[in-house]
Design a protein that fits this description.
This protein is an all-alpha fold and 434 residues long. It is built from 19 helices and no strands. 76% of the residues lie in helices and 0% in strands.
Length: 434
């Protein structure tokens, strides 16, 4: 089943390794905060709404970072922007560990979000353009599985640091140690070239006197439909995942009375499930197509979320449910990268991909805050009920988007005509497939 990997050339493998590391660092930062919510609530006397906002802030700012990163990718190159984004993210994540109030941490989280939004935009389009079409879904989905590695590292770090250090010190070291893998990503990127499809398209535009295309071309009438629908798709996928994963440690502590170390064991199980989900989805993406893959995982989430939250099982039986929840809610991400790469033309590929994914991420980031607000309001919604309603509702956006988007399985990016500066020439991704 790994023949495809052995068939990759050196450049494809180097790109896969570097992007795998970048995704792992991104996931590590996202998941670190979910483990810190109970500690920060106790230390700073935060409300659940404030705790949700701290989780949401970096995700919202990543929408801006993703668009900016995508614009820069289409102008100065995918590899260069990925390096800059990682360096930015590392600096402000380190500052998070020095925060001494809700306001200080909020500002640092917002600024760090700009970095990892740009990193995803650069890495996703880099992978999509360098990996050959027949392996694109498997490769990008495999790189997506790095999120599981990042989640696992966060869970292990949480268990170890909170067992060794007092809580008011442990949470700071979570941020400081969490950025160390980024050093290895920067080293790996030294041997990764810019994609040939990007360089060739850029040379062709320069020959026509249109080296740069306005980033606002993603709102051109011929592209706008793709931009809107991919944003809705990204919103549904990420809102569903955020609503469950960010609040899961808090739910396990409050509903099942688990310790921080015990929560770590459950999160490791969920992370293992997500790793398997990423890989399975990556293969299904190339086997049955992008749209069917999204539909299949949506149906699994509508089963897994209520089962995890409401089945009357003893704590020991939560582990199988952890696995299934991780498989469904995070495995669905695998198809986003290749699908978005295939939908946008070369000149605005990174811009469109970065904008859509991160706008979906930014809007989806409000869903954990909505969970906090609903559960704090009292009435018929406790934390469990709020997670169920908000999490399941998110996947209706996925169904809406894939019902209106075309299938792109096997699309060769080298054969798609580019878009000119005036919007006169379009990629085959838009007119006759929409």
């Amino acid at each position: 089943m790994f023949d495809w990997f052995r068939s990759l050339n050196k450049i494809e493998k180097r790109t896969l390794y570097a992007c795998f590391g970048g995704w792992a660092v991104d996931a590590l930062d996202t998941q670190i905060y979910s483990f810190l919510i109970p500690t920060l609530i106790a230390a700073w006397h935060l409300s659940t709404a404030q705790a949700g906002m701290l989780g949401t802030s970096a995700l919202i700012s990543s929408a801006l970072g993703g668009w900016i990163g995508g614009i820069l990718c289409d102008r100065i190159g995918r590899v260069r922007v990925m390096k800059l984004a990682i360096a930015w993210f590392v600096f402000f994540t380190i500052l998070c560990g020095f925060a001494d109030s809700f306001e200080h941490l909020l500002i640092a989280r917002i600024l760090s979000g700009i970095g990892f939004g740009g990193e995803w935009a650069a890495g996703a389009v880099l992978m999509g353009e360098i990996i050959r079409p027949e392996y694109r879904g498997k490769a990008v989905g495999t790189v997506q599985s790095a999120y599981a590695i990042g989640y696992a590292i966060a869970a292990v770090m949480s268990s170890v640091l909170f067992a060794m250090l007092p809580p008011d010190t442990a949470w700071r070291w979570m941020f400081w140690l969490g950025v160390t893998p980024a050093i290895f990503v920067l080293l790996a990127l030294r041997n990764v070239p810019e994609p040939a499809v990007f360089l060739n398209a850029k040379k062709a535009r320069e020959a026509k006197g249109a080296a740069h295309v306005s980033p606002f071309m993603i709102f051109h009438p011929k592209v706008l439909r793709i931009t809107i629908l991919t944003s809705i798709l990204a919103l549904g996928v990420q809102a569903g995942g955020f609503s469950m994963v960010i609040w899961l440690p808090t739910l396990l502590k409050t509903l099942h009375n688990l310790t921080t170390v015990e929560v770590g064991y459950h999160m490791v199980t969920l992370t293992f499930g997500s790793f398997v989900g990423y890989i399975v989805a990556a293969y299904l993406c190339d086997a049955i197509g992008r749209r069917r893959n999204f539909l299949l995982f949506t149906l699994m989430n509508w089963i897994a979320i209520p089962a995890f939250l409401f089945l009357p099982v003893p704590t020991s039986m939560l582990f199988p449910l952890d696995f299934v929840l991780g498989f469904a809610s995070l495995g669905i991400y695998s198809a986003l990268g290749p699908y978005f790469t295939e939908l946008f033309p070369s000149a605005i590929r990174a811009t469109g991909q970065g904008f859509s994914y991160n706008v979906g991420r930014g809007i989806g980031a409000f869903f954990p805050t909505l969970v906090g607000v609903l559960s704090a309001a009292g009435g018929q919604f406790d934390l469990r009920g709020a997670m169920a309603i908000v999490g399941c509702s998110a996947y209706f956006f996925v169904v809406l988007a894939i019902a209106l988007l075309p299938e792109t399985k096997g699309r060769d990016l080298d054969e798609a005509p580019d878009i000119s500066g005036d919007g006169g020439t379009m990629s085959s991704a838009t007119p006759h497939h929409v």
